[in-house]
Every structure is written in C-alpha cells, then in structure tokens.
Amino acid sequence: MTEHPVFTWVENICVVYFSMEYMLRFLVAPRKVAFARQFLNVIDMLSIAPFYFEMLLWLCGISGENVRKVRWAFLTVRLLRVLRVIRIAKLGRFSPGLANFALTIRKSKKQMQMVGVVMITVVIFFSTLIYFLERDEPDTKFSSIPATFWWCVVTMATVGYGDLVPVTVAGKMVGTGAIVCGVMVLALPITIMVNNFMQVVKLREEKIVKKYAQQHGDQV
C-alpha cells in the first residue's frame, strides 16, 4: 500500500519544522542533558525519530520491498511508524488539559509503582492457585503458571474473553476471588489519579490567581 504523495509532503514539511524547532531549543538550552530528559522533549524526539530512521535505511539501500526481506528492519520500521502517533502529545504544550494530565501521571509515579507491585503479586498468587487446581483436568489449557497469567489478568480486569475457563468448583471459587480482588486493586489507580489530578488543577489555578494579582497589584 503506497502513501498519498500529498500526505508524504505534508509529513516531510512537518518533520523538518519539528526538527529545526527542537534543535534551536536544544542549542539555547543552558543545560543540555536536563533538556533532553524532559518528558515533552522526549516526546518531540520520538515523534521525529521514525522519519530519520527510515531515511537511514533508504540511504543503506533498504527501502520498499527490500525492508520486508530484512526482518529486524521491517519490524523496527513498523514500530516506529506506530510511534508517529506520539506527535499528538506535542499538543500538550498548548493544551492546559493535556499538560495537567501529564503532570498528574508524573505526580502519581511512586503510587503507581506500588500498585504495580501489588498487582504483580496478586496475579502470581491467583495464577499459582488456579494452575494447581486445574492442571490435572482433561484437556486443560492451564499448562503452566506463566501461561495462566493471561487468564488472571483478564479475569481481574472483569473482561472475561472465555479462552481459558476453570472447570472445577475450587477453580471457579478462585476465579471469583480473583474478580473481587481485581476490582479492588484496579480501583486504587483511579482513586490515586483523581486525587492527584485535583491537586494539580488546584495548584495551577492558584498560580494563575497569583500571577493575576501581581500584574494588577490586587490582594486576592
């Protein structure tokens, strides 16, 4: 499937503009390493990287159908093409809502790490239980504990695809426990994110009020 030439030209122009803008900001930045490690600047770099990687492959003689013959190059190009969607995150510079969301994620990092550890522990626990309860059943699909992780995650998320189903009474009881624990564990990140989001919005509003008071000389 070939890309429309108009879209190709539009993409090329946008990439050149983004590249020049990134390089100029990098050159005037007093601390280069800190600049490169900032979240939005990492997004900027990831958004333009696919274009230059494909150009590098083209210069090496790997392009078009030849990319498919080199498996690693083909998979890398496909992955980087998906990463083009990251460019929409650049709107966070101009959208207070997206900026608040990014700050909320950064503020919730430590709490989310704790929730992740709890989630992994619970998944291993229920996967181990269901494996030992179901492994001796005829035609069982619970072949190993790692293979049971998929069932546990799907069950805890209350999705229930039905590709792995316990058949014993004890296994169904464990599945019920996994559902209940999943609801409680998955509720934690939502509570944390909402609480931190409200704090971020409150701080931003306080900064706006303070800036307004300084500009107009009023006591707010």
Automatic annotation (TrEMBL):
InterPro entries: Ion_trans_dom, VG_K_chnl, Volt_channel_dom_sf
Transmembrane segments: 6-27, 39-64, 114-133, 145-162, 174-194
SUPFAM superfamilies cross-referenced by the UniProt entry: Voltage-gated potassium channels
Keyword tags: Cell membrane, Ion channel, Ion transport, Membrane, Potassium, Potassium channel, Potassium transport, Transmembrane, Transmembrane helix, Transport, Voltage-gated channel
Main location (coarse class): membrane
Pfam family, one: Ion_trans
Membrane topology field: Multi-pass membrane protein
Record protein name field: Transporter, cation channel family protein
